[in-house]
Amino acid sequence: MIRQMDATYPPALLGFAAASLRCAQSHAAQGMHGRAAAELAAAAAAATTCARLQPALAAAWKLRGDILAMHVNVPVAPDEAEGEGVQAEGGGNDTAQATMEALRTRGVRQVAAVTAARAAYARVVHLTPWAAPATVDLAAAVVGVASLQRAAPAECQHEASSSSTHCASTRVGRTAAAASTAAAAATETHATAERVATGAVRLAPDSPTTWAALGAAATAAERRENALARCLQLQRQNAPAWAALGRLYLHKGSPGAAAVALEQARASEPTSAAAWTGTAALHRAEGRRQLAHEALAMVRGKRKALPLVVLVDEGGAVSSCSPLRLRGSVGVGG
Q: Of the candidates 242, 203, 212, which has an alpha carbon nearest to the alpha carbon of residue 230?
């Protein structure tokens, strides 16, 4: 209604886009991905129109970036809203192929959305180079691109292992080459994210937000640990930073230190998705499968009104965290 009546009035477009984004976040949190996708499409259209009408309006580009980043949490496109996913008649290979095709399509869509979010945040940085939050958003988006690039080979490997044995060696060779290329691209992208986050720290050295961004973007484990520790010095009750530190300790082979950090994360914010997924990873690493399942249930349960975004760290471990909670913390802004 607002878009139809005030399609050339930037404040109305911004308000409509922001309201649609909030609706999409609420629907995604409830698992209503079809509705969330439709809301995101409407929000993106309004924000894009506003940015086109007012190309120097940083708020429009910022909102466009937030909307595009949110696409990572919505596994369906607007045209899939009715079915809430892919349905295939029959079974066996036909169903498996349909599922893999859906995963590929969604993966491509997610990469495109996060890449576009990165471009939108870059425009904000260009318009407001003195603003550290804009640089943090850009760093988070670049980390998101690197995470998706790193996750792509796993999907290719799964496809190769689940398909028929015909020409298996050829498929495995192509898969290995694709994995190597994607890993190299992810490493280069992550290095870019680190440079951007370092710039944010220089702009606001006393902000826990900028140090958290560097903790997420740094490629060296020692630098990540130091950045997260500095963030927690500035803001003790930062659950995503505690969770990231816990996962870092777990990856380094220090489960005791990881347990302490994750306990701090849960104490700081009992509903933190990052804290509970980190706790689940710790339980899995120590062979406590039931406890790991229960920890993940805390994320998926109805009490958890938090959409999830999948991130893959440099060790290949998959974690989930909420972009709604990561504003000013660790991860992709939302």
A: 212
SS3 310: strand
Give the pair of three-digit tokens for residue 185: 């691209």
Angle, helices 58-70/93-127, rounded to nearest 10 degrees? 160
Q: 127, 56 in Cβ contact below 8 A?
A: yes
Q: Mean pLDDT of successive 10-residue segments in the chain (334 residues)? A: 64 93 89 88 93 95 94 66 42 61 72 90 96 94 86 49 46 59 82 94 95 93 95 95 95 93 94 92 93 87 40 40 37 36
Query: Which H helix or E strand runs over 319?
Result: strand 318-321
Give the residue from 145, 149, 70, 77 showing the smallest Cα distance to 106: 77
Which DSSP helix (H) or strand (E) runs through 292?
A: helix 289-300
Q: What tens digit of pLDDT does each residue of 255-310 get? A: 999 999 999 999 999 989 899 999 999 999 999 999 999 998 888 763 433 333 33
Q: Strand 309-312 and strand 318-321: pairing?
A: antiparallel
- Nearest alpha carbon to residue 186 among 309, 314, 46, 23: 314
Greatest pairwise CA separation for the chain in angstroms = 59
> Do the Cβ atoms of 244 and 228 come closer than 8 Å?
yes
Quote the tokens at residue 304. 């958890």
Instruction: Report the candidate in 147, 148, 118, 149 with the shortest Cα–Cα distance to residue 135.
Output: 118
b/e per residue 286-309 (b: at least 16 CB within 10 A): eeeeeebeebbebbeeeebebbbb
Give the closest residue to 18 by CA, choosing from 66, 52, 58, 53.
Answer: 66
Q: Residues 291, 303: contact at Cβ < 8 Å?
A: no
Residue with tokens 């804009």: 134
DSSP letters of 166-218?
TTHHHHHHHHHHHHHHHHHHHHHHHHHHHHHHHHHHHH-TT-HHHHHHHHHH-
R_g (Cα) of the chain, nearest Å: 20
State how far the Cα of 53 lies from the Cα of 61, in Å rounded to an integer. 11
Residue type, 306: L
- Closest by CA to 137, choosing from 118, 111, 116, is 118
